[in-house]
Write a structure and sequence with these properties.
The chain is mainly α. The protein folds into three domains: 93 residues, Orthogonal Bundle (Fumarase C, Chain B, domain 1); 282 residues, Up-down Bundle (Fumarase C, Chain A, domain 2); 35 residues, no CATH class. The protein has 17 helices and six strands. It has a two-stranded antiparallel ribbon with strand order 1-2. Strands 3-4 form a two-stranded parallel sheet. A two-stranded antiparallel ribbon has the order 5-6. Strand 1 and strand 2 form a beta hairpin.
Length: 450
């Protein structure tokens, strides 16, 4: 039975269209919606709306639901509409009138936002941990290639001497910055929404700070209308925070597609990573790189889809917001898959030092020669530039290993500052540890039967 059931039958075609596949994606919210309800009944008890005994009975049923969900035995169907309805109907079936009290002072609007925020906190902690593993993989690659020359390119043409360490270290440092953006999304998400009702609060003197403390949110999202208006925006911001890393990984994939070509041969992969062709017997394709490149655009489309759904909506709850949930979950899933696969790629990437050094033709040292003229002969740079350009075919070809060591400034190929990046990683790990510990402690406190 639907929570809003009236004294007439809804046309099943209309009902099916409105519900869509939302019920499928609500399955992953069951645990967090049950946890949210455990916290909510604590606040109802504090107000005297339910007794200690009633709270205990309701909580025990909610713990049953969590266990059933773990076993995949609490299954939402289209007729349930959503996880909130399924859970409340279960409580009513088990507890009768006591179960009917759980929705007092709450709307499905602030209820679902609470469940999504708890789910998001849990998921973002896991994504942050995976991102650390990704950074460490790039950092290890940078360390391995710290002194291995690699032709630097602009416009894809040879430009200046570089190194595998500089190339891999660039991704490592960029993703560290990306991690700080994800952390900002985590902080933005860390606001307690419960108490907003359907948009306009509730006519009960609920203690919203008590509720905030129960769930371990760092602050209350105060304005009840803003709580509902922020749905969709919050989810889009979380995906947008992940985009920084997805863009890095798309660039990484494109680089490897080019640099693993036989014509370059800078890097190669285990045969177990390479797919074949149904027609051409010789083919060994790094298809996984092409899929990262493609799916990074799919990920961008999820962000655009949420922004398109929420754009120009009037204030207050609108059913359009239901459509953001599926897109948000798909985006989170895809980001995790791209990160997981990229860790595997970086960890198994193999360097061909011979091919890398063979790429150092004399023209790549042109700027070095011009700078030498400036420093050794006092020639103005523009004159040195022209002189080198005129004599490019007759220039000597220096040792690329020696050339790297000359670039000793902070962040140059000869001074990658990898130890400082490692320190940043350790600080980020500590922030994740504190967030995870605080979150788990609050959830475990709610689930405790003592």
């Amino acid at each position: 039975m639907k929570l809003w059931q009236k004294d007439y039958e809804i046309d099943k075609r209309i009902d099916g269209f409105v519900v869509g596949d939302d019920w499928l994606f609500d399955q992953r919210l069951v645990r967090f919606d049950a946890i949210g309800t455990i916290g909510h009944i604590k606040s109802l008890n504090k107000l005297g709306i339910i007794t200690d005994d009633e709270e205990k009975k309701i909580k025990n049923c909610l713990l049953e639901i969590i266990e059933l969900d773990k076993k995949k035995e609490f299954v939402i169907s289209p007729s349930d509409e959503d996880c909130h309805t399924k859970i409340e109907n279960y409580l009513i079936e088990k507890l009768g009138d006591v179960g009917k009290k759980v929705h007092t002072g709450r709307s499905r609007n602030d209820q679902v936002i609470l469940a999504i925020r708890l789910y998001s906190k849990s998921t973002l902690i896991e994504i942050r941990k995976k991102t650390i593993s990704l950074i460490e993989a790039f950092l290890n690659l940078a360390k391995e290639g710290e002194n291995i020359p690699m032709p630097g390119r602009t416009h894809l043409q040879k430009a200046m001497p570089s190194s595998v360490g500089l190339w891999a270290g660039a991704f490592s440092e960029s993703i560290i910055d990306g991690l700080s953006i994800i952390e900002s999304a985590y902080r933005m998400n860390d606001q307690s929404p419960l108490g907003a009702g359907s948009s306009y609060g509730v006519p009960i003197d609920i203690d919203r700070d008590f509720i905030r403390e129960i769930f371990g949110f760092s602050r209350i999202q105060k304005n009840s209308l803003y709580v509902i208006n922020s749905r969709g925006k919050q989810e889009a911001y979380i995906l947008f925070s992940l985009l920084w890393i997805i863009l890095d990984l798309s660039k990484f994939a494109e680089d490897l597609i080019i640099f693993s070509l036989p014509e370059f041969g800078y890097f190669f992969f285990p045969d177990s990573f390479l797919l074949g062709s149904s027609m051409m017997p010789q083919k060994k394709n790094p298809s996984f790189l092409e899929i990262i490149r493609a799916r990074s655009n799919t990920f961008i489309s999820y962000i655009s889809r949420i922004f398109s759904i929420i754009n120009s909506l009037p204030s207050g709850y609108n059913q359009d917001l239901q459509e953001t949930k599926k897109t948000f979950f798909l985006g989170l899933d895809l980001a995790e898959k791209i990160i997981d696969t990229s860790i595997l790629i970086v960890q198994n990437l193999r360097i061909n030092e011979d091919n890398l050094t063979k790429g150092f033709t004399r023209d790549i040292f042109a700027t070095d020669h011009a700078i030498d003229l400036v420093l050794n002969e006092g020639i103005p740079f523009r004159d040195a530039y022209r002189k080198v350009a005129e004599e490019i075919e007759n220039l000597p070809s220096p040792d690329p290993y020696v050339s790297l060591k000359k670039r000793k400034h902070i962040g140059g190929p000869g001074n990658l500052m990898l130890d400082e990046l490692k320190e940043e990683i350790n600080r980020a790990k500590e922030r994740i540890r504190k967030d995870e510990e605080g979150f788990i402690n609050k959830i475990n406190g709610l689930l405790s039967t003592e």
